[in-house]
Each structure stands twice: as C-alpha cells, then as structure tokens.
Amino acid sequence: MHFYRDLDTQKVKWRDVDPNKTELCWKVLVLPPAGEDNKYIMNGTSRMPTRAGVGVIGVDGYSNTQGGKEYGSKLSGWFFIKYDAMNPENTGVFGGHIYGRPNEKEDMYNQILLCSEYMSFPTYFEFVSDDYYTYFKNRGRLAYLGRFPKNTIDPIKLKSGKIDRHFGFPTTEFALTKQNDAMTTYIEHHCNKIYYEELLEDLLKFRPYKRTPSDRTVSAMITLVSSLEPIATPPTPKTPLIKIFPGAPSRA
C-alpha cells in the first residue's frame, strides 16, 4: 500500500498498490481504529503526534543518493504496536514494513512522513545521514521525529547532562548493544509474534559486526528499542484545579 495526502482535506489516506510495479510500498498488518488516524495536537505552530503511547516507527535509511542501488544499503522501516496488557495477543507486534531503494530519497521520506502522520506515531531514523531533519522541518512536522531515546545513552553520560539528544537514533556502541539485547529478548519470548517471513529470514543471517546487508533486522531493532522509551507526561499540578473554601455558603 501507499500513503498519500488528500489535497482537499490535507489528511493522509492510503491505497492498495501492486508491489511488483512500484519501487517502494508498505506491507501493513495493522491500521488504526476508525477515527484514530491523522490525530495530532498543536505545539505552537508545529504538529505533534498523539499516539506515541500506542506505537513508534523506526527507519534504517541510506545516505548516498547516487549509486548503491544494487549492492548498497536499502531503506527499511517498521512500525511497531507497543504491548498492551489489556490486548496481549494483538500488541507487541511489528505491524507494518516498508523496504526498497527509490530513485529519489524524497520518495523515501515522503512515505515515512505520511505514515507517521496517518498512524500518529513518532519516527526514529538511524543517525547516519540526517537530511531527514530538513525534510520534516520544512514541512512543519519536526515534532514527528523522535529524539535519541534515553535508554540508548550511557547512564553515566545521561546523568552528567553533557549529551545532545538529536533527532534520530544514535549509532554508539552502547546503542548498538542495546539493539542486540532487545531483539534477543524479543525473539526468546515473542518470536511467535513476528508475522513477516522476510524478517525471520534476515534475523537468521544477521551478524552484529556486518550490519549493512541486514537492513530489515537493523531497522527492526531500532524500532523495538525506540518502543521501550518511556512517554513523557506533564507534571501533576501542585494546586487543585478547583479550590474549595471551607465555610463558604452553599449554592445548592
């Protein structure tokens, strides 16, 4: 399937496509319930996704536009539905996958952005080539990009406060180890929830020190670790919203 923007309503919609006749398309198992797509809130002049508690998108893109079509890295992206104890059978799963190498990188960013808007999920790109930042920013969708997840940063560096949490997913040794550990745990306990044969096949061939041929696995690990990032919640008000004055006359 392809995501596209309705020019009349400016909402994102989707349509079926023939995967044999397109360089890039989504293979989707799960879509939002009716009325839950295209949800957002405004943060100043920027839109923000509202369903970060439901799922995330993780992307392993490619840096060079020219060359590499046959042997180089390809785009691979997943969206993941976070585990919900009230619906354990249908959550904690990879629900959508995009894979390929289009002629123009903008086609890649366009499909990722549209999916992010439709699902209302934040997106985490591997922090290798960050021109995705410009693409999202120029379209007023910078808030749809997730920053470095805190669980991918060395706790000592995190406590020091001397760390820049850029938009994306880090490629440090600590973050790569976190990816491997998270995927190993997921496979050990939830392998039965992987419904994509191509991911299962890629996982069997994956080697941590030779990641380039395993775009599907790398992007799945980015997505999985990003899904473990706690959602920031606003602090509880220190004073009640409604003040009660003892001894005040009743209006009943």
How does this model look, in words?
Helix content is 27%, strand content 17%. It has 6 helices and 9 strands. The strands form 3 sheets. Strands 3-8-7-6-9 form a 5-stranded mixed beta sheet. A two-stranded antiparallel ribbon has the order 1-2.
Overall pLDDT metric? 89
Largest sheet: 5 strands, mixed
Determine the structural class based on helices, strands and strand pairing: alpha+beta
Order of helices and strands: EEEEEEEEHEHHHHH
Cα Rg: 20 Å
Key phrases:
252 residues, alpha+beta, two-stranded antiparallel ribbon, 6 helices, 27% helix
SSE inventory with pairings:
Elements: E1 2-5, E2 12-15, E3 26-28, E4 40-43, E5 46-49, E6 55-60, E7 75-81, E8 93-100, H1 105-119, E9 123-125, H2 131-138, H3 155-160, H4 173-190, H5 197-205, H6 215-227
Parallel strand pairs: 6-9
Antiparallel strand pairs: 1-2, 3-8, 4-5, 6-7, 7-8
